[in-house]
Design goal:
alpha/beta, globular, Luciferase-like_sf, Luciferase-like_dom, LLM class flavin-dependent oxidoreductase, Bact_Lucif_Oxidored
Amino acid sequence: MPITVARFNLVDPNGTPESLSARYKAALEMARYADDRGIDTIQTEEHHGTGNNWLPSPFAFAGAVFGATRRIAVTVSAIIGPLYDPLRVAEDVAILDLLSGGRLVTVAGIGYRPEEYEQHGVEWGRRGRLQDELLETLLKAWTGEPFEYRGRTVRVTPTPFTRPHPLLLVGGSSEAAARRAARLGLPFFPSAHLPELEAYYTARLAEYGTEGFCMMPAAETPLLHISEDPDRTWAEHGERFLHEAGMYASWQSKDIRSAVRSNARSVAQLRAEGVYRILTPDEAVAYGRGAGEAGNLVLHPLCGGMPLDEGWRSLHLLCEQVLPGSELSRAASRRGVVAGMVTPSPPAPCPWSPAPT
């Protein structure tokens, strides 16, 4: 049985303050509905200064989701670590961890858009050093004990709910990211199916004498929409999927590797490519069964500014026809979920790209 994920980035290229407010409220209602129906995790992310209103504040959104739900996890995949103040992140994550009873999962990458660094007044060339500082600071801060930080003694309270600390993963597609994760004994979250990078990370764990695990996307990890009439949905809403795919692809340099990178230039190409898929309920059941326990069934109900009623139809079909039909729905038991699998077993990944290094 694959893990079930509902993704929300709240993109809407034509959004107004009024329509975006409605979209955010609908996303919280969808999260509450997903929580009640046994979906495993909500996934969210961040980008800044975009022309289509991409969510810039994932921790704020995660807090709202926790307030609306009882058991579902929220995976922030990923934060752009060097843009954050390390002490403030330590405090914010600790509070979210307490508020949720341990349901927050954070993936920290370093991003791939220099303009986001410029907007925040952070030097692009210092991103690796800043990421090291962030991760090291978080691990010290969450002990609740005083420690040295930038030449002064500080202490972060309260301590988080999860011990020894909230689940924190290092995201990326480079050897530098893998080394960073191994050195700190943190799980590694590659941004694509990269077996050679997993092997490199495993070797570095042995070199540093640390413990960790790698969560790698499957070779195919599509973003899904459920419809009783895929032809109709492609005809009416294909441009929304293409918009999001195209914007994401425009940010990628040739050395960036992502599980959901699209090369499509038309709706027809996007449909044939398979990164975004619109499936009937029966097709989704078959896909879920074929994916198995190592897979993910990732619904993207509000993709690219999708109308709210169409997003609700997709979510209802997943929960009312796909999950019962494929025995994917799980009991609402408390489980540690990392956008994919249950801890402490090595979890499976979210299929979309964390900010690479």
